[in-house]
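[retry 2/3] FAD assembly factor SdhE: previous attempt timed out, resubmitting with same input.
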Amino acid sequence: MSETREIRLRRLTVRSWRRGTKEMDLILGRFWDAEGAGLEDSELDLYEDFLEENDQDLYQWVSGQGDAPVRFQPLIARLTRV
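[retry 2/3] FAD assembly factor SdhE: success.
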């Protein structure tokens, strides 16, 4: 059975707000609350892949302290605008 969009959005809400580090909870949770429901399915796929990365790498990429993989760069630009 396939997951509905509503269930997927609820699952991603939890994953965005309960990361492992408070910094990433705040960054991803705020982004998700502001933009999550409006993401297209392909953007949700990319966001889920992004969430699979560890918080230390994510923080480095979002804070500009490290270079993110090219495929995540548009998402990170969007994250930092929120």
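[retry 2/3] FAD assembly factor SdhE: The longest helix spans residues 22-35.
[retry 2/3] clearing retry counter.
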